[in-house]
Amino acid sequence: MLMQTHEARLSALREELKKRGLDGFVVPISDEHMSEYIGAYAQRLHWLTGFGGSAGTVAVLQDKAAIFVDGRYTVQVREQVDGKLFEYVGVPASSPAKWLAANAAEGAKIGYDAWLHSKGWAEGVAKALEKKNAELVPVDGNPIDAVWADRPEPSAAPALVHDETRAGRSSADKRAEVADWLKEEGYDAAVVSALDSVAWLLNVRGTDVERTPVALAYVIAHAGGTAELFIGEEKVTPELAQHLGNAVTIRPRAAFEDALGGLAGKTVAVDPNYGVAAIFHALEGAGAKPVAVRDPTILPRAIKNPVEQQGHRDAQARDGAAIAKYLHWLSVEGPKGGLDELSAAAKLREFRDEASDTLRDLSFDTISAAGPHAALPHYRVDEDSNIPIAPSSIYLCDSGGQYLDGTTDITRTLWIGPGEPSAEQKDRNTRVLKGHIAIARAVFPQGTVGGQLDAFARQFLWSAGVDYAHGTGHGVGSFLSVHEGPQRIAKFTGAQPGGDQELMPGMILSNEPGYYKEGAYGIRIENLVLVERREIAGAEGDYLGFETLTFAPIDRALVDVSLLTAEERAWWNDYHAEVSRILAPQLSGEVLAWLEQACQPL
């Protein structure tokens, strides 16, 4: 029998916990690889609560339950989750550990799925529960799976070869680099469990997770240069087997846990950010020595080789043409009224599909945000939240595509006519633009970390007494994850992975300062940039800067030109001259005429 209501689902979960002798259970938005985006089979929290965000946790006790989300989802969680069933709790002000310690009964047994949580998380919660003499217990099989009757199966789609002409390096070369690292560090093997790391290492892609072209799999890489790939047998094609060759042993995905048990006596590298607690448990239980250390593929993956860099430029050029067609369409149709967030997002997908036969997916769900929704930086439109794009208002669109040769991510904020934006709207947009230009023009010594550049983008907003609550830049993959570490540009707290990662030539980041006025409007201007070397006459040491990769017009209706310096106006004019050079050959007719007007110098 299918349970239609979330109340019935919560009740069924509680009954299942009783059968297992558990007093509570913790449900994260996660899969066995600690992925940012997860397959439908792993959407347990959404099934239980109805919450559609990408980050959150639920703690269930027999008499109460709570859902934990950060500030991005304060509004969304109240729209989607029944407050009679789940208490709303904000993080980081509180946490599942604090809530459980306060609400669990003395001596309670709280279950968790060790395949969905990090070892550090489990240790932290277990310590918090000690105050109540309560215990955190790993479950044998997820109890939600036992009551979710129509749970989708994991994707059976075949894994796909990512050709070396696009990857720029052979898988053998990458595996040799990992093997050299293992030998240098004194490790016998490394567990590679992040899906994009597996994809990069083996030059393999897939369609198992929406918005990220990966295949569900694990790798154990050995110091001798060989590797074991654990993947569903139905996903292995003759082309894949031939591509991987004799040095990669293909084994069933279900054999992964037993293979960890076979590493007795070995020293094994496991990334604590992507290696779930169950991996550490299996290794420790077998008598292996797991060492918590960063996945050895992460830094080389972040430093794009020349083939990947050119692939990004090519993908961005095609993507920019699709964006230009979309911006022109909005300039014509928006002032008439009749558009809404969903129809606009669908039209943008249509333009991207027309622009290139190399498009394989979007790189994330399009943030099509009208009016007050633009003030929610991570807004996701659906049938319930969809609103009209009103004439004489601000509209924000953050979107991207997964092309075979590159991953794109671009945000444009537009004034939908008729009429003029307010003086405040133009002021805030121009301050965001000034911050964007400051990052684009930055020159910095080698060894600089992203956190040291973050204030470049915020300074003009700070001087007006305002700020934004997200990072200024994230790393981006090469036909892989749109959010890729370890580099980032953000307020340096020391707590975030990658906050202390130096920026290195070949890394790609977003440049996306913003401003958000709750309940009114929001602004963000985002391009992708490539870290490159800068030659400076007389320089004492090596210096770096950014090459801008994204080319599409920025809306001049929201710019107060009087606030721009001569250098900033020169950047704008040079940027738009390049936009015209790259996009004009791909456009014609009314769209080309619109582009030429949009790219006129200030």
TrEMBL record:
UniProt GO MF annotations: metal ion binding; metalloaminopeptidase activity
Entry's EC annotation: 3.4.11.-
Domain Creatinase N-terminal: 9-141
GO CC, any one term: cytoplasm
Keyword Transmembrane helix recorded: no
CDD domains in the record: APP
Residues in Peptidase M24 C-terminal domain copies: 543-602
EC main group: hydrolase
Domain Peptidase M24 positions: 312-532
TM annotation in the entry: none
The keyword Cell division is assigned to this record: no
One Pfam entry name: Peptidase_M24
Keyword annotations: Aminopeptidase, Hydrolase, Metal-binding, Protease
Family: Belongs to the peptidase M24B family.
UniProt protein name: Aminopeptidase
Organism ancestry: Bacteria, Pseudomonadati, Pseudomonadota, Alphaproteobacteria, Sphingomonadales
